[in-house]
């Protein structure tokens, strides 16, 4: 763990992985230093609006065994018609139906957000189901695309370039700036995918 000052009133705490970052962020929000914002990412947690010395003094009180936040379960209906569904099946050595069965059997957890407003990095895909990114990213991925990369799953909230493998689509709205909590899949949210009826 390493602390990097970012000006007088902010710092980044570098950790080994996203689960650890989520755990640290959860602890910090509940009983850590009083920061204006605490933002987890893949291997860092940003503490903004607090003296870095306060963060450094508080960190020894955090237990690495503390679990990340466990938020509500959000069910996401998916039409499994993605252009990369067969490629994922080939990579896993199974049928497209088996990809769907595995994907809908998992409970994934939003560990952090980034890339675009409403895009959450969902953890929980088994390590043996890791998939590579596209060699050449697409210039445009449609909003609502459900995609995999490495051991992550994500849903594109808006049209954007992207290199993840798209396995399906959903009509769920992921970002609404008019809501008190604009992101549907805030960190800690548990996600269950299901076949759209």
Automatic annotation (TrEMBL):
Keywords of this entry: ATP-binding, Hydrolase, Nucleotide-binding, Transferase
Domain Carboxyltransferase positions: 1-185
Entry-linked SUPFAM superfamilies: Cyclophilin-like (SSF50891)
Domain of life: Bacteria
UniProt-listed Gene3D superfamilies: 3.30.1360.40, Cyclophilin-like (2.40.100.10)
A Gene Ontology molecular function term of the record: transferase activity
Signal peptide: none
Identification of the protein by name: Carboxyltransferase domain-containing protein
Higher taxonomy: Bacteria, Bacillati, Actinomycetota, Actinomycetes, Propionibacteriales
């Amino acid at each position: 763990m390493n602390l990097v000052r970012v000006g007088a009133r902010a710092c980044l705490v570098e950790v080994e992985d996203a689960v650890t970052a989520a755990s640290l962020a959860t602890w910090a929000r509940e009983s850590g230093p009083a920061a204006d914002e605490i933002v987890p990412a893949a291997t860092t947690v940003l503490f903004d609006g607090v003296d870095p010395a306060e963060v450094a003094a508080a960190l020894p009180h955090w237990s690495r065994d503390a679990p990340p936040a466990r938020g509500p379960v959000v069910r996401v209906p998916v039409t499994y018609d993605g252009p990369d569904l067969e490629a994922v099946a080939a990579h896993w050595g199974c049928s497209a139906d088996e990809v769907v069965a595995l994907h809908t059997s998992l409970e994934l957890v939003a560990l952090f957000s980034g890339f675009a407003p409403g895009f959450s990095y969902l953890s929980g895909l088994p390590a043996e189901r890791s998939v590579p990114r596209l060699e050449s990213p697409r210039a445009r991925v449609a909003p609502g695309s459900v995609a995999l990369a490495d051991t992550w799953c994500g849903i594109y909230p808006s049209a954007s370039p992207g290199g993840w493998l798209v396995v399906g689509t959903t009509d769920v709205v992921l970002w609404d700036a008019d809501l008190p909590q604009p992101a549907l899949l805030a960190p800690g949210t548990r996600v269950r995918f299901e076949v759209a009826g």
